[in-house]
Specification:
Helix content: over 70%
Distance between the termini: 165 Å
Structural class: mainly alpha
Low-confidence stretches: none
Strand content: under 5%
Number of strands: 0
Shape: rod-shaped
Largest sheet: none
Length: about 160
């Protein structure tokens, strides 16, 4: 069996402590420094990542605000364009109605003038015809049958003079 010898135990402990001291002097400090540096580097990277994330979120919020402003401006421009188009359409419609009324009034006036002119012309022609008939009747001092025949003959010639 395995027996424990006190000398061996002492030398094992001395060797262990010596190796431990040597490792702490030579290897432990550089390893701990490297671990500390790595830990600090990771903290710095996390801090930078958080800062970049915050900046990205701020840019995203700014972009969303700009998009909302642009959409609002587009809606406003659309409404303005729509109202301008409606106003222009109404003005054109009003102008067309006013022009139509003016043309209608002008046409009525022209018709009235032509009617008056035709009536004046007709009156003059009727007067001429009456004077002509009266002249023939007065010149022909005839009996009633002969006067009637002269008037009938004159009336037959009347459409010829109305056409001229």
């Amino acid at each position: 069996m395995l027996e424990l010898e006190p000398g061996m135990i002492v030398w094992t402990w001395i060797t262990f402590i010596l190796v431990l001291v040597l490792l702490s002097k030579l290897a432990l400090k550089p390893i701990l420094n490297a671990v500390d540096k790595r830990e600090q580097s990771i903290r710095d990277d996390l801090k930078a990542a958080q800062q970049q994330r915050d900046e990205a979120q701020a840019l995203l919020d700014q972009h969303k605000k700009m998009m909302a402003d642009a959409e609002s401006e587009a809606r406003k421009l659309f409404q303005d364009s729509k109202s301008l188009a409606e106003k222009a359409r109404q003005e054109l419609l009003d102008n067309a109605q006013q022009e139509s009324k003016q043309l209608l009034e002008k046409a009525k006036l022209e018709i009235e003038q032509q009617k008056n002119s035709a009536l004046a012309s007709l009156k003059a022609e009727v007067a001429d015809l009456a004077v002509g008939a009266a002249e023939k009747i007065l010149l022909a001092n005839l009996d009633a049958d002969r006067q009637k025949a002269v008037v009938d003959e004159y009336l037959k010639t009347m459409p010829k003079s109305a056409k001229n």
